């Protein structure tokens, strides 16, 4: 009975691992294939990109991956970090320091590391989203693998090999059939 529970737990763990792995691979592929549009690619309302300047340090270091979620502009508050367009092809992530607007909603922003606020207000049509996640580690890893794509392929092959070995290890029935077949040949 306890062996069945362990076997079921292993199957659930395997299934979850494969689902997460498939989602990561699919998300990465979709992200890469749709990244030809102006600005950051969006998947299910989320956009991601790498921070190129020091304007948000130390809160969001240069080189960090930032994920912004599309949001109703009326939900944005002072203190939120938002990503917005400045021009047609350039996005900026800064902190909201003021929300105002008699006729039209507008936001005043400033980089954490900047001594002055941004000169131009941000309008709702310029907003990509509110920052929900950032990681310097992932940004550094992306930069490293972008410089050495062959290493990414090697890592993917190694992960696939480990996954296949784990699948074999957690399949007692298949393993016992193979072991019996091997022993029968001896």
How is this structure best described in words?
This protein is α+β, with helices and mostly antiparallel strands. Helix content is 42%, strand content 22%. The chain has four helices and seven strands. It has helices at 2-33, 136-147, 149-169, 172-185; strands spanning 42-43, 46-50, 65-69, 81-85, 91-100, 106-110, 127-135. The relative contact order is 0.12.
Present the secondary structure layout:
Blueprint lengths: L1 H32 L8 E2 L2 E5 L14 E5 L11 E5 L5 E10 L5 E5 L16 E9 H12 L1 H21 L2 H14 L1
Antiparallel strand pairs: 1-2, 2-3, 3-7, 4-5, 4-7, 5-6
Keywords:
186 residues; alpha+beta; Umud Fragment, subunit A; seven-stranded antiparallel sheet; 4 helices; 42% helix; elongated
Provide a compact summary of the structure:
By secondary structure, the protein is α+β, with helices and mostly antiparallel strands.
Characterize the main sheet: 7 strands, antiparallel
In what order do the strands lie side by side in the largest sheet?
1-2-3-7-4-5-6
As residue ranges, the low-confidence spans are none
Order of helices and strands: HEEEEEEEHHH
Alpha carbon gap, first and last residue: 33 Å
Give Rg in angstroms: 24 Å
